[in-house]
Amino acid sequence: MDALHSFEVIRPHTVEEALAARQAHPESRMIGGGTDLLVNIRRQIETPPVLIDTNDLADLKSIDVSGNGLVIGASVRLFEVAEHPEIRRLYPAVAKAAGTIAGPTQRNMGTVGGNICLDTRCIYYNQSEWWREANDHCLKTELGDMCHVAPKSKGVCFATYSGDLAPAMLLFDGEIDLLGPNGERTVSMRDFFTGYSRQDGSTGDGIDYMAIEPGEFVLRIRASAPGTLVSGYEKIRIRRSIEYPVAGCAAAVARDGNALADLRIAITGTNPRPVFLEGAADLAGGALDDAAVQGIDDLCKDQLMSMKTTFTPGHYRRRVATKMAIKLVRELFEAAA
Amino acid sequence: MAKRIVSFTLNGKAHDGVVPDNTLLLDYLREGLGLTGTKTGCDGGECGACTVLVEGRAQLSCLTLVGQVAGKAVETVEGLSHNGRLSDVQEGFHMKLGAQCGACTPGFVMAAEALLRCNHRPDDDDIREALGSNICRCTGYIKILDAVHHAAARRRGEEPAPYPPLPDRVAGHVA
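^ inputs. structure came back:
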């Protein structure tokens, strides 16, 4: 095995120290569990000169569930979210999303901040240096100038966002607390993820997929109180563990008698961002009938734009996501009775 | 590159190492300390062959920098046997033929050890879930399940079950 490139690791104990380190080293990367970043470093996809280890930031290790909602620190481990009794009770979509990320060993390591900021993935990007070089590199690294998965993309990168926590948090008006040189700010997850999605006209893509300013880093994520929403999370993988999702779907419904009172659906693994299906709430108001199901199908067709992976063609992943969304919504509607 | 002193507990003994920041725990264990029981597999966090315990939980040493275990308790497969006697998990893999080529075995043994410390009575699903980060290309996993059941029985102080009726179990998992 080749040694990793030379880098320095800074281990701050307070967020102030972390911010100072971030400002002193603009090219630095934050490292939590390392299950995403260190793989990329091993493949020389990125070679940051400084890593800032977030594991000693005690302020970012708490989970708080109250009447106001849910707050999870960026350094909380994924298994802690999956096993937290109050999250399991009130936010089953969040607990299940966290509990199905990769495998148990990865969940012991990976952090909430890391999963939210998970790098976008593509079969032409997540490869070794010699593989990428043999293929003339791609848009997402600085060395390439073409998107191999969508050759006519005209400079737009189609790498896929596949984090599981973000879609589950989007159901509950998810927000992210960021700290940077200009202080702390809270941004809605729907604005945070900017990767191009057909319906919103945003300018981002698989490279520019987060509205994070230089020097900023994630402090915590927030969700509103669930109210009467019943939520769940499903995902399809080629094998049951370790794997990134073919597609993942988070959904929440509220039921009023036999009517669907609220409907929220968010999907990951298809676009360069987690897709909060625009227009899903408009399908609520009546029964969960064929028209409503067709409505979900139409929204997915319009808003999901998955690309091929090693195992599946793109349109298959969109169909999987659509079927999964409909199945999950039906199950949740029954459970809410 | 500058080196730092990193202190941690390794298999129950205090250890101080002098390592550059970019050293992975896997490389340090194998090449720095000669503890080659921990295996290098995929080099990318996909196979689990490099699994060690950090503070009692399974962790991938190929994606852990040595500095990240400072002050923590690290256990490798070398720490399991006592006075030449195999641990219950090692005995299970030996008795129930849970290893073939053996490259994945230390990782499976450590992941199983982490499971049995918090669950003495795991069922097949518990074991499959707990070993979900490990890949074996030889055994087909059935014998690994048997090995962990064997170890769990030992840990409960019971006599391990004889070899279970294989065709029934295979059929159960296919369904």
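Residues 88-174 of chain B form a domain with the DNA polymerase; domain 1 fold (CATH 1.10.150.120). Chain B has a mean pLDDT of 92.
thumbs up if we can close this ticket
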